[in-house]
Specification:
The protein has 2 helices and no strands. With 76 residues, the protein is mainly α. It has one domain.
């Protein structure tokens, strides 16, 4: 089993609490302690989904560009 180092945990905690802070700054103060954690999970899933969509869109754009060039080459 590969144990986590203190440095790896510190890096992960820094990143996690930065993301948690983003969520906590946008929700009402009267929410429970668990709400920001649950919301952070949902926001992270949404961010991953949006990143995947952007990658797929870039791939589609690249494919369309290649098809456009092939059509132009065939016309000449």
């Amino acid at each position: 089993m590969d144990l986590l180092t203190i440095s790896a945990m510190q890096d992960a905690a820094d990143h996690f609490f930065e993301l948690l802070g983003v969520v906590q700054n946008r929700i009402p103060e009267e929410t429970s302690i668990g709400d920001p954690l649950r919301l952070t999970e949902h926001v992270a899933r949404l961010a991953q989904f949006k990143r995947k969509e952007r990658k797929e869109e870039l791939h589609r754009e690249r494919f369309r560009f290649n098809n456009f060039n092939e059509v132009k080459l065939d016309e000449n």
